Amino acid sequence: MTRKIISVLLxxxxxxxxxxxxxxxxxxxxxxxxxIGYLAESERDLLNKQAADIYEEYSVGIFFVYTTxxxxxxxxxxxxxxxxxxxxxxxxxxDSWFTFYGGKGEEIDLATEDKLRAVYDLADTYIxxxxxFLDAAADCFAPVTVISDAAKYFLYDEADLLNDAxxxxxxxxxxxxxxxxxxxxxVCTIASMDGVNIDRYLDYLYDTMGFGxxxxxxxVLLLVCMDPREYRILSNGFAGVAIDGDAIDAMGDxxxxxxxxxxxxxxxxxxxDQCVYYLxxxxxxxxxxxxxxxxxxxxxxIVVGLIVAFILKGxxxxxxxxxxxxxxxxxxxxxxxxxxxxxxYRTVSRSKKSSSSSSGSGGTARSKGGGSx
Length: 373
Fold this sequence. Notes:
There is one protein chain. With 373 residues, the chain is an alpha/beta fold. It has 2 domains: 21-139, Diaminopimelate Epimerase, Chain A, domain 1 (Roll), CATH 3.10.310; 150-285 and 363-372, Diaminopimelate Epimerase, Chain A, domain 1 (Roll). It contains 12 helices and 9 strands. The protein has helices at 2-17, 24-27, 41-58, 77-81, 110-121, 126-139, 164-181, 198-209, 238-242, 245-261, 264-284, 290-315, and strands at 32-34, 61-66, 87-92, 97-102, 155-157, 184-190, 219-226, 229-237, 365-372. The chain has a 5-stranded mixed sheet with strand order 5-6-7-8-9, with helices on both faces. A 4-stranded mixed sheet has the order 1-2-3-4. Strand 5 (155-157), helix 7 (164-181) and strand 6 form a beta-alpha-beta unit. Helix 7 runs parallel beside helix 11. Residues 18-24 and 345-363 have low confidence and may be disordered.
């Protein structure tokens, strides 16, 4: 039954992405307009196709307009919309930006608007910024159908990579780790993506299935596809803080060779062990390798000490202790006419202003990564 759920979800996305007849309404509309000249024609074409696909999938028009108009709030959006009732329009000129919403688009609040703008601002190029904005805005309207018993399951082997004994052992391990750290660990295998974008499916699968514990949906999902041979890891909630992008890369490096060699049970077990390492380290502190670090510290200390000792030895000259300071003064070279006490040094204590921010174990985030095998 659980395998069929994954297959049905994949089929739903596939059906929506492979619809052959794009409506004439979407074809006739320019979702991305550039009156300034930031985008090349080929870039606009790509972005318009992306926005048209989003409109067809979610029935919400996501627009981005670079304009030379000065008063953005008075921009003629009706001509731009072409009859679309549900929309988000981001306008930008050389100095400022302005956003229009209509229909379903009005569900976006100010906090979400700030996040959408931040997604655009963080991109390195104009095309990347607009593309990221389109996707981020589209995600606001993605349907989420939570399956109530998803928290009971930890393994969905739709590609049938494991035998019965391996499935039982892995599912127990995933359940034990999930219970210990209160973050749901899930391994999902897919035989083929059938043309569906694996990165979009990763988010869709996690959210639609309702994976993760608690209100922040704390959990980690490993998705493995056999055609193409790709894997992805998504960490969410406090697990998204504990297992960030760098950690995900390291986790992948730890088990990708087993995936490549067909040792799937070993790869999935290593995935679970890696999750333990990062989740436990985040909550309780990473273990200190006393023996290894002690040896390294001693070697470094000895080497540095020897270098300093040899340098100082080379600077030494034969000296004898003198009890009187006038030994070092040439006779007749100094006449003392005045004396006073002068404080040459002072001790000042300063406290640095503190400004701390920490996501802590209750922090919320989502991290993703992966590669091929």
